[in-house]
Amino acid sequence: MAGESSSNLSIIVHKNPSESHLSELGIKSWPKWGCSPGKYQLKFDAQETCYLLRGKVKVYRKNSSEMISEFGAGDLVILPEGLSCTWDVSVAVDKHYKFESSSSS
Fold first, then answer.
1. Interacting residues of 39 by C-beta distance below 8 A, sequence separation 6+
2. Angstrom distance (rounded) from CA 16 to CA 86
3. What is the DSSP string of 38-55?
4. What is the pTM of this model?
5. Nearest to 63 by CA among 34, 92, 37, 43
6. Among 59, 94, 53, 90, residue whose Cα is nearest residue 74
7. What positions does the domain (S)-ureidoglycine aminohydrolase cupin occupy (predicted)?
8. Angle, vertex CA 77, rays to CA 76 and CA 83, nearest 5
9. Is the pLDDT of residue 6 over 80?
């Protein structure tokens, strides 16, 4: 199948992960990032795992009106490496995040 390889990259959303799972991951020690409502072009050069403390986001494939994911406060989200997308933020986001360091050194 021709086309961009990024088209089959999927975003994984865990709704309401347990407190024990969150503390296992060490979420509270991760850096924080926030943004106000708006549209953002994002490219993920590494896999990112994030936990939304607040916010509401719809994710669209880059240069497309195709929605590929939707998540918000309380969701644990895994964004794949190589993903180019547009975040349409309707409620300001506050999140903890962590990038997976690629071990291909």
1. 86, 87, 88, 89
2. 24
3. EEEEEE-SS-EEEEEEEE
4. 0.87
5. 43
6. 53
7. 22-97
8. 170
9. no
| Length reported for the chain | 105
| CA dihedral over 18, 32, 70, 64, signed as positive or negative | negative
Sequence-ordered alpha helix ranges (H) in 1-103? 19-25
Superfamily for domain range 10-99 = Jelly Rolls (2.60.120.10)
pLDDT tens digits, 10-43: 999 999 999 999 999 999 999 999 999 999 999 9
Find, among 76, 81, 70, 74, the residue nearest to 97 by Cα: 76
Cβ contacts of residue 41 below 8 Å, gap of 6+? 62, 84, 85, 86
CA R_g for the chain: 14
Contact 54, 92 (CB under 8 A): yes
User: Which distant-in-sequence residues (6+ apart) come within 8 Å of 67 by Cβ?
Assistant: 58, 59, 60
